[in-house]
Amino acid sequence: MKIDEFMTTRIASIDGDRSVYDAIEKMVDRRIRSLLVKFTGRDSDHGVITARDVVFKVLAKGINPTDIKVSSIAARPIVCVDREVTLAEAATLMEKSHIARLFVCEGEKIIGVASLLDIMSASLIMRARGENVP
Amino acid sequence: MFLKKIFDYGKKEERVIENIKQHLELLCNACDSFHKAMEESDKNLVREVVESERQGDSIRREIIANIYAGAFLPYLRPDLCRFAEIVDRVFDSLQETAFSYLEVKLPEHIRDECVRVAFLNARMCEMLVISFDAMLNGEDLREKTLAIRIYEKKIDDIKFTIVKDLRQIPVDDFWQGRILAEFVSGLTSISDTMEDASDHLQIIGVSMKS
């Protein structure tokens, strides 16, 4: 199964200049665990902020999330793959790079994101279809 | 074949099974046509959905008639009929959605998500066919129904984002808004009914084994 079949196509994003509080609000409101971070003036430069970053780098350290910018805790650069990448290749890359999500890109355009949960779901679908699961 | 082992597998049963398979395959063709219609913005393909719905109606009547003409043991008949009726409800929802598609002015920024839902509906239907075949072979349907639930959940998540976006879309008049709302609601509810069909299939599988 190719990554474009199980990726999520609607990607929520936030500007790097916004506060971590804004990011928390957006993630909770949309029931998601990460946001694509856009940096002002650099269209092709992106980062990612996850719930894990928020909890470990801000809340656990007792920092007020309104006092810290998203850009200062976002991970960058993001890891992009082609839409033709298979589930097995995606899982291997995530394991090697120690990341929980892969962005799917066409040129400089981000067209989707696949998380660990998407990979697990896709593997269950492949099993049910009787396909070879890595 | 599983049914063959358990029942006196006569011509009537064989005909019902063939009809149910045909019914499901027709539904998958209709889902594919609708996905293609949306992907290629080709509203002519909607005719194929309508035609499939008409054929599906006739197959459903044949299934029920054959069942009540004596196919299968009496305790299984209501469940098999119910399954055919649920599949027919999927046809109805698909046709209604296809009709709304002819009328709707689909905003560009929700278009891709709607096409994705149509694609996932088609994949879900394929899984329903796989489940039916697995049930006939007496296999455990646990993995198959889980796969269907995963598709349904994925569609539900997309629905959440589309509905959120819909609230921001300005409409010129009441009817434009209503058609758009009906289209989105119809498109995202097809998977609910397919999930019902899958759940019912599991029930039939369990009754056949007991």
Task: Tell me what you see in this structure.
Chain A has 134 residues and is an alpha/beta fold. Chain A contains 6 helices and 6 strands. Chain A has a 3-stranded mixed sheet with strand order 1-2-3. In chain A, strands 4-5-6 form a 3-stranded mixed sheet. The N and C termini of chain A lie close together (11 Å). Chain B has one domain: Phosphate transport system protein phou homolog 2, domain 2 (Methane Monooxygenase Hydroxylase, Chain G, domain 1, Up-down Bundle), CATH 1.20.58.220. Chain B is elongated, with a radius of gyration of 18 Å. The two termini of chain B are 16 Å apart. Classes of the chains: A alpha/beta (134), B mainly alpha (210). At the A-B interface, helix 6 of A face helix 5 and helix 6 of B.
- The appropriate CATH architecture of chain A is Roll
Tell me the CATH architecture of chain B: Up-down Bundle
- According to CATH, the homologous superfamily of chain A is CBS-domain
H/E element sequence of chain A: HEHEEHHEHEEH
| Strand tally of chain A | 6
Give the strand line-up of the largest sheet of chain A.
1-2-3
Percent range for helical residues of chain B?
Answer: over 70%
The ordered string of helix (H) and strand (E) elements of chain B is HHHHHHH
Number of E strands of chain B: 0
Helix and strand composition category of chain B: mainly alpha
CATH class of chain A: Alpha Beta
Please indicate the count of domains of chain A.
Answer: 1
Quick one: biggest sheet of chain B?
A: none
Unreliable segments of 5+ consecutive residues of chain A: none
Radius of gyration of chain B: 18 Å
Q: Any idea what the CATH superfamily of chain B is called? A: Phosphate transport system protein phou homolog 2, domain 2
Structural class of chain A: alpha/beta
Biggest sheet record of chain A: 3 strands, mixed
CATH topology (level 3) name of chain A = CBS-domain
Tag the structure with descriptive keywords:
heterodimer; A: alpha/beta; about 25% strand; globular; B: about 210 residues; Methane Monooxygenase Hydroxylase, Chain G, domain 1; 7 helices
